[in-house]
TrEMBL record:
This is VGCC_alpha2 domain-containing protein. Coiled coil: none annotated. Residues 12-326 form the Voltage-dependent calcium channel alpha-2/delta subunit conserved region domain. It comes from the Eukaryota.
Amino acid sequence: MGLLPRNEFKQRFGITVAFLATHSGLTRWQEFHSNMAEELGAGETFSEHNNKAIDEVWYKRAVDQHFIREESFVYSVPFDAGETGAETMVTASHAIFHTEGGKSAPAAVVGFQFQHTALLKLFRNITGNGCTMDDKDCYVLDNNGFIIISPSRHETGMFFGEVNGAIMHRLVEENVFKKVTVYDYQAVCFVPDGENNCSSKFFSPIIHVLRLFKWLLTTVLWYIVQYTYVAAEFFEPLIDENMTDYFINLNKNNEYVKYVTLQRTKLKSCDMQRDLYTLYNEKDNVVYNMTAHGCERPFVVLPIPASNLILLVIDQICPRDATHILTVNPIDINYQLDANQTLQCYKRDHEFTRIRPTSCISKHVNESFIELCGSASSILVNIFVIVLNLLLCTFL
């Protein structure tokens, strides 16, 4: 099979940019535009949004995917792809490793971006009528359970557990996905309105003094407003024909004041946890060979070659539990605190276990051969400084 011409290849797959990145950053990139008008109105370029070098998500994911399947590409879409009305771009990246002396290291990452509509069109051409039936829903998920292709466009980029938590739970039980729980012991949470703490007004008598001061201040302000209102009645207002429009516009502007008003929020330290999901690394997983069996197993899952994606086909005839939802958002850990106990005191009383190093590493075997050492810590008598001080004391 011969290669497609460049223009036909770009038009068929909707490629917008091809790039090459190394440790020093985005080294090479080429943007493709269908016409001159699109090139003039392109706005910000790909290089302006992807200037973090090895800290880019597509760079790190491509390197991680290399250790799972060397020949595969990593495909990803933004999390809010389904919420925006603009054209969604799919990013595909592949890591290139350099091997020398039996050791390998990532040298570069190559990739391209293409239109999501082109991927959807290619997917429908491959699957044919199998995914267009009313009783079948076809999803393409990445290795972390996020939706790349969905029957509903607004679900693109969402976590599949939020769309169908029951099937996602079955995928975890059948070892298609593995759940990984991570903890954040330095998180910050918002204090909800009306939340009580362990402090008591009996132990805080100053609260009554503050209330008295607040009452005095509001009373003074109230009398000032009343005095200003009474004084304004002695003056005849100057009415102009344009004044009505002025007050109407003023009232309209007041409607937008609530959008620019600063909302006072209170923060507190807390612990959070979240459940993340990743594909099992087994290339020959027996789950991929299992077929659907009525409503006992109303789905079929297959890996997509040379990628981090899987194809999931669900039978919609079976009942669906809409209340079962899985999420990857962090949640606050609610500890069983005592009546007058804070989170800080709870952590002090309950030491969290930490994994100690497997071995004691106190020195390196090559430390004795290091010759480039400074002498800043050595204590020596500086003869030059002593002689200089004696000369200054003698002749000055």
